[in-house]
Amino acid sequence: SGPSVPSVPTSPSVPSEPSVPTVLPGDINNVVQQTSVSKSTKKSVSNDGSTLTTTMETSTVVIEISSDFTSTYEIGQCDLYNGIQILKSLDTKAIRRALSGKYYLAEATPCSYFDSPDSRVGILNTAFPACSMQLIFDDISMDAWDYNTPHMVMDRGYNMKTGEIQETRSYISSVYSEDHPYGSTVFALYSEGYYPDTIEELTQLKLDGMICKPPSDIYKNQIIASIIGYNEDDYLLLCIANQYKNPFFSSEPVYQVYAYTRDRIPSQKTMNNINQELLRAGYNPNYLIKIDQTTEIEVEYVFETSYYESTFSCWSSSSSSYKSTKITSSYSSSSNPPLVT
């Protein structure tokens, strides 16, 4: 028999796009990160035989954790969160230092739940018209954190729509005992609230094993917050365990995170470290927006126990005169808000 005829190789099929992603260096707060760009092509033929080609380009920013970053505190997985790790094992003196004095809100997960003229800026209303936001803890009894004592908190900011400095009273207290693994970093924040209506939660947060008792009837709004990053005299990162129907993240639930700094305009190093803390905790820094701190509420806030123990809520009609008196005594009755550039 004659030699076999070699088979003719078939031509390889041409692969369709998407192309191999291109990785480009970039810059977000000078943090080690990459931008991955991928293209995909789609061809469609119309009835008259003409061909239309469309190319879509998708870019994704990936911020990477730096091997140089170190933190003083350990983190661990707490049952309150899915995929987020929080700090543990702060001693009572460290907790008291962390939850005292004034912080400026540098970055936050955007949220706004009702477009009501009565809405107040603060932790649960960080999008426009909020700016110049501060969180201030009382400095009463600074020796050590007492797990059984609630402390006064003032959440204040400037509302660009109304031109008002809005103040929302809150109390913060521990929800676990001192011997609980996360007793030092999980807290209840009871506030007057930021809206006339109740915010809808996606799922009811389980409060098993927690001690949750509002100090009085006017503090109807309860959120559970945890420390996910902290550096003394530098920054405090809080993550809320409650998950709400946030219109900014309608496709997937996203935890609300707050980056508070001691400096009104934090250094680049501080912002870099905040991003690294967020990554370590398992949170995507791209979810945060920068909060405008260009102008400052210049008058220092002075805590008055009687004001916090008052039964007049900012939402009750009888409280308007009480509240305006408070603002007048704190800020002067000038028609312009006391902001300085």
From TrEMBL:
Residues 1-26, 316-341 are annotated as: Disordered. InterPro entries: Calycin. Residues 316-335 have a biased composition (Low complexity). This is Uncharacterized protein. It comes from Ixodes ricinus. The lineage of its organism: Eukaryota, Metazoa, Ecdysozoa, Arthropoda, Chelicerata.
